[in-house]
Amino acid sequence: MHVLSVSSLKGGVGKTTVALGLASAAFSRGLRTLVIDLDTQCDATTGLGAIGEFSETSADVLQSPRHNIVHRAIVASSWGKNQPGTIDVMVGSPRSQSHDNPYPTVSEVWRLETALTKVEREYDIVIIDTPPSINGLTRTAWVASDRVLIVSEPSLFSVVATDRTIHAIEELRKVLTPRLGVLGILINRLKPAAPENEFRVNELRERYGSLVVPTQIEERSSIQQATGSGRAIHSWPGANSQEIAGQFEEVLDFALASFANQSQRRPTRAERKTQRVSRIMRGQTLDQVLEFENQPEAEEGLES
Ligand SMILES: Nc1ncnc2c1ncn2[C@@H]1O[C@H](COP(=O)(O)OP(=O)(O)OP(=O)(O)O)[C@@H](O)[C@H]1O
Ligand SMILES: [Mg+2]
């Protein structure tokens, strides 16, 4: 199971749209897909056609990540009605707001990771939609993730937000979870065939180099129509939406390649040190993890 957060500290740049587009690509490819809605606006939940009263939501999971609660908070998306496969959503709730503490404790940011251990064998890919902030909810998502995809507008307007996001991910990676990495910066809402496109993309490449995802997502009204109807972009009719669907497939491929590299890459010395922690993350209590982390340096030599 691989876990991807979709984030940006700037609101309205297309986090939910990208999370749903990637979920659509993963589902259409036959991957068992779970979307986790950590945003209090619950746009991803709505976009996946999960509407109604839910006995448990992601807010309850963050309160108490127990097996039963986790399973009750996950429902089937209506996307799966016309196509076989697994597309589920851990439903969002305005009540998640109470977990968006600007100074979350280590125990709080660990809860989603704990919850995911309960469904580890049930999904191939988990995509987390996060709120446009860097408080408790977003950090909780990152601690549970292998990679973060940063969504950006096609302009330098969001560099401050993007820089802060990269910095915050790095910080968390160093202290808590070495497997976490930036997947890349995805440029969204590029105007199709606009002459200034190349200039805008290059401007961002100059600043972020290869961190800029090779595929960009164009601005297309079919995205809004599909999302508004609670449908997957891959099932929305028209050449227009198929083009966009193809762009999301390319980004999915980019993510899958990054996940694959992750396990092959030889860890650096600093990473090896912190990996003692990550190796025991899933399925352990926070106390055990912290105890492990606090063991004296000398014991590192005992590791294979
Ligand atoms: N590539 C696109 N083409 C057309 N419309 C888009 C595209 N990406 C996003 N939008 C539209 O822009 C609006 C904001 O997108 P979205 O809700 O995905 O942003 P967000 O980052 O999740 O916002 P928030 O910060 O409020 O969670 C939506 O109406 C969405 O349909
Ligand atoms: Mg959103």
Cα Rg = 19 Å
Q: What's the CATH C level of the largest domain?
A: Alpha Beta
Strands, total number: 8
Largest sheet: 8 strands, mixed
Query: What order do the helices and strands follow?
Result: EHEHHHEEHHEHEHEHEHHHH
Derived structural class: alpha/beta
- Assign the CATH topology of the largest domain: Rossmann fold
Task: Quote the average pLDDT.
Answer: 87
What is the CATH superfamily label of the largest domain?
P-loop containing nucleotide triphosphate hydrolases
Report the helical percentage. 40-55%
In quaternary terms, these chains amount to: single chain
* Ligand inventory: adenosine-5'-triphosphate, magnesium ion
CATH architecture descriptor name of the largest domain:
3-Layer(aba) Sandwich
| Distance between the ends | 25 Å
How many domains is the backbone divided into? Answer: 2
Q: Count of helices? A: 13
